[in-house]
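Hello forum,

I keep getting stuck at the same step: I have a sequence, I want structure tokens, and every attempt I make locally crashes halfway through. Rather than fight my setup again tonight, could one of you with a working pipeline run this one for me? It's a single chain of 248 residues.
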Amino acid sequence: MPPTETNAGTAPDLPSVLVVDDDEEIRRLLDRYLSGHGFRVVSAGSAAESRAAISSRPIDLVLLDLGLPDEDGLSHLKHLQAVWRGPVIVVTGRGDAVERVVGLELGADDYVTKPFDFRELVARIRTVLRRTKPPTSPNVVADAKLSFAGFTLDPTSRHLIGPDGRDIPLTTGEFDLLRVLVSHPRQVLSRDQLMSRLHGRDAGPYDRAIDVQIGRLRRKLGDDPTQPALIKSVRGAGYLLAAEVKRS
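Reply #2:
Ran it on my machine without issues. Output:
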């Protein structure tokens, strides 16, 4: 069955959300609710339908349930990060802590647990879209490039350039986390502060999203155990970027 789309002809400028879930009733409810709150909704009941949707039309965000009938949801998330690299919010069962952490490791930008509150879901979607959408107004001044320890972070193009001049691929979540750290150099930011700046919410007692993304960032920045850490852990307090930052 091909993916279905609502609000396609009436409001083409609306943000497009691809809902990937094998439960037809959930897809129907999400379609109705999101369509009524300013989104163009594309529905897919399988990984195959999701691939078809991604390849055939513009998609701004994917809402991905991990229980798919034709492919493991985490495997499909990995595929999306490899070929599409747009923002993904993962949907998990209430007790799937391991899947949630693995999803974040693979680059998901946020997660919601079933059963979820529709209003919270809309807020999460809007928060992720605000972080990942470039400014469209010609009157908006582009953000300055941020240079630190040989790296250059470009908020406008959302690229990280390494000391060797090569582009270092980052997921949307990794880029936004690094941008927060680079914008507050040598300042300790708690997990709650980072979660609030990234997702507009506090970290829960078992929320490892920040820890997971910090680990991924360290690896991509070439974390060397023989050298001082670029992103430091401050025991009982949070994280800080231990480098001078210059704007250009």
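The two ends are 50 Å apart (CA to CA). If your local run keeps crashing, start a new thread with the error log.
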